[in-house]
Amino acid sequence: MRSMRRRLLVTAAVLAMTAGPAGAERRVARKPTPTNAGDRGRKPAERRPVPKLPETTAWQRKPKDGSYTRWPVPAAGHSRSGDPELIFTFDNGPSEKYTSKILDELKKRHIHAIFFLVGWRVTKKGPHRATRRALVERMIREGHIVGNHTMTHPHLCHLPVKQAAAEIDDSHDALHELVHMPLVYFRTPYGDHCHKLVKLLDERGIDHLHWDIDPQEWKDHDAVRVTATLRRKMRSVARNDRRAVVIMHDSHKVTAMAFPQAMKWLDRENARRVAAGKPPVRILDGSDLASELMDAKLSGWVRQTGESAAGALVGALAGVVP
Ligand SMILES: [Zn+2]
């Protein structure tokens, strides 16, 4: 029952995100909507030790349940517009040091991103708690989407199923307190993939959003090199009219330095493209993807429920539409 309830709430959240026109009016539609989705009376777990493993090598490690497949790429499918499309995502925040710099850059450019936040960062008592919580509220206010990146950033596939579930649910609840709506987007730390995790997400009606471009700034703290990597990979997307999800980390100083530089390059690239009669690289946001997700979920639902349910829906609509 609980998973069904969560599924319905996620669908409602996607509908809320996709409702209304683009821009400021759409942001109004996504303003906090009261819901009791996360209010189950449980307190988020205290911070547990974070495994110190590099961000991507988990993919090469075999999870204990024997599964060995990966998340699908391209992470958000192929370009629907036929033009190059980029989706910016930032993980592991909010950071009292660097997140505001990323938010300033996004605001200056009127673009929106998806922030995959770690729950303990907004629950841990201490001098930064209020600042971090205010940053999450700022994200929502400025039209960004907040996603769940677990409570303590563990390798979920290496945890007992109950603990893995708590990592997802506790973080959802902690973040829900601030964003006031179910979190549609989820990203598993280190990109871990296993049947157990897929089942846990499926039970909750949520999906992992993977990535296509990883400048690995969590490992390489040289802003010049990171900017060059971003530029090279974004150029490849632009030249081939592809769609790519970019992963960065607002918990690192190098990201706050490299991201504005990469965006300046994108400005120049777009100017070159327009001068050559080509469409500029589009920046999609979470609402654009949610809209596509909704299409897919609805069409899947119609297929599953069959003609009788579709007929009942048409009948019900006929009763209320004059
Ligand atoms: Zn992460």
Describe this structure in words.
By secondary structure, this protein is an alpha/beta fold. It has a single domain, classed as TIM Barrel (Alpha-Beta Barrel). 48% of the residues lie in helices and 10% in strands. It has 10 helices and 7 strands. Strands 1, 2, 3, 6 and 7 form a 5-stranded parallel beta sheet that branches. α3 links the parallel β1 and β2. α1 packs across α10 and α8 runs parallel beside α9. The longest helix has 35 residues. The protein is globular. The chain starts with a helix and ends with a helix. About 13% of the residues have low confidence. The site of zinc ion has 5 residues, from β1.
Q: What is the architecture at the second tier of CATH?
A: Alpha-Beta Barrel
Question: For this structure, what is the CATH class?
Answer: Alpha Beta
H and E order: HHEHEHHEHEHEHEHEH
Q: What class would the helix/strand composition place it in?
A: alpha/beta
Whole-number total of structural domains: 1
| Helical stretch tally | 10
- Could you give the distance between the termini? 35 Å
Give a brief rundown of this model.
The chain has 322 residues and is α/β, with parallel strands linked by helices. The protein is 48% helix and 10% strand. The site of zinc ion (ZN) has 5 residues, from strand 1.
Structural topology:
Blueprint: H1 2-18, H2 24-29, E1 85-93, H3 99-109, E2 114-117, H4 120-123, H5 129-141, E3 145-148, H6 161-179, E4 185-186, H7 195-204, E5 207-208, H8 223-239, E6 243-249, H9 253-275, E7 282-284, H10 286-320
Parallel strand pairs: 1-2, 1-6, 1-7, 2-3, 4-5
